[in-house]
Design brief:
The chain has about 40 residues and is an all-alpha fold. The chain contains 3 helices and no strands.
C-alpha cells in the first residue's frame, strides 16, 4: 500500500501544480476513485 500511496501523493502534487491537466486528474481518479480535484485543492 505504501507504494500505491506514494504514487497517489505524486499525482496529487502534479494535479495541484497543473490543475488544467485533465489527464492527470483522470489518472488520479483511477488510483483513488474517492479523491476529487476539489479535495486536493483544499
Amino acid at each position: 500500500m505504501n507504494e500505491v500511496q506514494g504514487t497517489i501523493d505524486k499525482l496529487q502534487t502534479t494535479v495541484r501544480w497543473d490543475p488544467d491537466q485533465s489527464e492527470l486528474v483522470t489518472i488520479l481518479k483511477i488510483w483513488a476513485p474517492g479523491v476529487t480535484p476539489q479535495q486536493l485543492q483544499q
